[in-house]
């Protein structure tokens, strides 16, 4: 729901039900958000049923105890999975591997799928260390937001060494967060660069293909159109966003459908 903040160009903030209605009417099938505050959970559950939307949770754990509480809340809300931006970027090496292993154990114990997001400023700060974690932890699964690594590494062009590392992360992907980075901006329009767009489509298609290799009946691969408001969104001097994020989200969904068709056919 972060991507629904200020999504109307007029600047008028939509009511919660208006956001649900807009999402469902556009053909989306699920929502990603933090677990709602206790006082609003009944309303959320009512709207989820009314608009037939699935629910995935955002979490920001520092340790296994944090995650355990967040997984329990997610289970109470009948969420499908929990996405984790794991703190923080200054935990590295064996300490980071130990923490991720503990988080995975909590997920297994509580029977709630948990996927670690590839995100700057978190334990997965950069591509190299994230691959090291994957190599050390065979069961570690990711929420793939590849835009963070493209901008962190200023990957304005294809880099052979990076592509080799990306393969490891793509092969462990269980959720995809879609956003296109230029390598200098974290979030640009779909039409910014045909060459950059093609690279993201290739990564997403590969991740889908890897996922399909191990998928079991009933498994899902969420593809989240995660276009953030300012300061993720680029604005003009007056503070107005230069892009229409809603239209861009629809474009990303269309791209995802194309990537999926290619992944299935291959």
SSE topology sketch:
Blueprint: H1 16-25, E1 30-34, H2 41-50, E2 54-59, H3 64-76, E3 81-84, H4 93-110, E4 114-117, H5 127-136, E5 142-144, H6 147-152, H7 160-170, E6 173-178, H8 194-214, E7 223-225, H9 245-265
Parallel strand pairs: 1-2, 2-3, 3-4, 4-5, 5-6, 6-7
- Structural class of the secondary structure composition? alpha/beta
Helix content: 40-55%
Report the count of strand segments: 7
Rg computed from alpha carbons, rounded to a whole number of angstroms = 18 Å
**Sheet of most strands:** 7 strands, parallel
Residue runs with pLDDT of under 50 for 5 or more positions? none
Dominant shape: globular
- Write down the secondary-structure element order: HEHEHEHEHEHHEHEH
Strand order of the largest sheet: 1-2-3-4-5-6-7
Q: What number is the mean pLDDT?
A: 96
Q: What would you say the CATH architecture is?
A: Alpha-Beta Barrel
Beta content: 5-15%
CATH superfamily: Divalent-metal-dependent TIM barrel enzymes
Q: What's the CATH class, please?
A: Alpha Beta
Reported by name, the CATH topology is TIM Barrel
Q: End-to-end distance, in Å?
A: 33 Å
Number of domains: 1
